[in-house]
Amino acid sequence: MSSKSTANPAPKPKRPQKSKLPATDVQEFRRLLKEFLSVTDDQGRKWADAKWGVYAFYDYDGEPIYVGQTNEQLRVRLGRHLTNQRTDAAAMRILDLFEVAAVEIWPLWEYESINLRDKKAQAFLDAKRHLDQAEYTAYLNAIENSRFKAILNEKIPPKGDRIDLPASLRRDLITPEIRADRSHPDIRIARRAETISRLAAVARERGEVSEGLRRVLVIQAVRLAYIAAVRLAYAEGRGEPSPEAINVEALTGPLLYEYSDPGGEEVDANDASVDGEAEEPDPDAAD
């Protein structure tokens, strides 16, 4: 006589939350980004809720590495950049997310009511001109504060008058534990070499890429050469070499304006730094 088993079948595995799938260091990065996007100012506004504004990224040395602008909302733009959603900088391998250790934003609250659909309206044109000036000012500040007098922007912002920037918010996006791990020189050298390889592969595979992308390839190579030289000096018990040992501008040409557009008058229709992309941001980053 047969008997039926009364044992319960093994429970069906539960599908994990998407936010739990990334590695621990990526989860921590996104947690700190989410906290950053929730910080409020003295008027109770979330800094990152501003539609118009400028932003900058910094590496593990506090070195400015990238400056951008947006009028689609700061949190949306940052979410696309920093959660590996599609942006030109990420897709073209120009910006390595593992190199970003801190972020700073400058919101332009006075333009919240601007109608983005009426790009011929004087109010929009005035706001856009101010936004361009703010971005160029942040770019100039980044260049001046960079040891190499160069950052990783593929497109140099249009030239404009230098202005007083509004109050900014700056925060780290990595924990002390992650900083201790990722900031080891050998790890950074290997990562930077990998970034250069990927960027060079983009240039090789696509063939027709911007002069700016090729300029960034040179700047990344300079950054790799310097950090490798510092590591060598440390291993040999010598003092660190001076960043001035490398004349970046002699290698890249002008860095305060596009060589092909010294007047800063050209408008790139494919420039995604301002309301350029339709993809939805990562909700985990934008909440």
Return the average pLDDT rounded to an integer.
88
How much helix is in the residues? 40-55%
Number of strands: 4
Distance between the termini: 61 Å
Q: Mind summarizing the main beta sheet?
A: 4 strands, antiparallel
* Tally of contiguous helical segments: 9
How are the strands ordered across the major sheet? 2-1-3-4
How much strand content do the residues show? 5-15%
General form: globular
Strand/helix succession: HEEHHEHEHHHHH
Radius of gyration: 22 Å
Class by alpha and beta content? alpha+beta
Which residues form runs of ≥5 with pLDDT under 50?
268-287
What does this structure look like?
This protein is α+β, with helices and mostly antiparallel strands. It has nine helices and four strands. Strands 2-1-3-4 form a four-stranded antiparallel sheet, sandwiched between helices. A hairpin with a 5-residue loop joins strand 1 (53-58) and strand 2 (64-70). The longest helix has 26 residues, at 211-236. Pfam families: GIY-YIG. Residues 1-24, 257-287 are annotated as: Disordered. Residues 50-138 form the GIY-YIG domain. Residues 263-287 have a biased composition (Acidic residues).
Question: Quick summary of this structure?
Answer:
The chain is of the alpha+beta class. It has 9 helices and 4 strands; from the N terminus they run αββααβαβααααα.
Detail the topology: elements first, then pairings.
Elements: H1 24-37, E1 53-58, E2 64-70, H2 74-82, H3 88-91, E3 102-107, H4 122-145, E4 169-172, H5 176-182, H6 185-206, H7 211-236, H8 248-252, H9 283-286
Antiparallel strand pairs: 1-2, 1-3, 3-4
